[in-house]
Write a structure and sequence with these properties.
226 residues; mainly beta; Double-stranded beta-helix; 12-stranded antiparallel sheet; 3-stranded antiparallel sheet; 15 strands; AIM24_sf; AIM24; Trp_RNA-bd_attenuator-like_dom
Length: 226
């Protein structure tokens, strides 16, 4: 039996963050290298790892994501290996090098605690769709892990003068320097996105990338999980 399961065993540590398969994140934890992660995303750990849900340092910032008490972030600290997942979603690991990325709040899995970050509502969309879209901008040098409902595509917006249009429910992340605006159009029931009537897209222009998932999953995954 051990031989049959050997192919699923953890691999040697190569980097601070790396994939273990498509849908699991492995984080090499060490003293002084704390991590912020989605609350409830821990599936296993080795060694000594402590968790602090809704830490005071992030309560005021992250609390904007949810209504009621609690924020969807926990602080992880200690020594060992930490494994995170989000309901079987694909995990994408990004290593920032004095760079920044803007992530849809529902797609942020984990990031190094020393990185600079902030939460804001995406401008230009609420007036069209009647609802907000929260994004988290993470900047500095360190690791960030995103989730995607399926294998994402990365669109380079700098290849032409045309704007890139994305369904808000399929949006994962984008370069913060891109210009963003909302666009409203009328469509048949099954041509663009889900449902019928008016369609709302986000238009990106400028130099940068947009990460899009092959799913229009608007399920609220920001609720704190026990």
């Amino acid at each position: 039996m051990n031989q049959q399961l050997a192919g699923f065993a953890p691999t040697p540590v190569v980097a601070r963050m790396e994939n273990h398969g498509r849908t699991m994140l492995k984080v090499a934890m060490a003293s002084g290298q704390d991590l912020f992660a989605r609350a409830g995303s821990m599936v296993a750990y080795e060694g000594f790892v402590q968790y602090e849900p809704n830490p005071p340092a992030v309560r005021q910032i992250a609390g904007q994501w949810v209504t009621g008490e609690g924020a969807p972030i926990m602080k992880c600290s200690g020594d060992g290996l930490l494994y995170l997942a989000d309901y079987g979603a694909d995990v994408v690991v990004v290593n920032l090098n004095n760079d920044s990325i803007s992530v849809n709040g529902t797609n942020l899995l984990a990031f190094d605690a020393h990185l600079q970050w902030g939460v804001e509502r995406v401008k230009g969309l609420a007036k069209f769709a009647g609802q907000g879209l929260w994004n988290v901008t993470v900047a500095g040098t360190g690791w960030v892990a995103l989730t995607s409902r399926g294998t994402p595509i990365v669109v380079d917006c700098g290849r032409g003068e045309d704007e890139t249009y994305v369904d808000p429910d399929a949006l994962v992340a984008w370069s913060p320097n891109l210009k963003v605006k909302g666009k409203r159009s009328f469509k048949a029931s099954s041509l663009i996105g889900r449902g019928s009537g008016e369609a709302y897209q986000m238009a990106f222009s400028g130099q940068g990338i947009v990460v899009v998932q092959p799913s229009e999953d608007s399920t609220d995954r920001l609720r704190v999980r026990g």
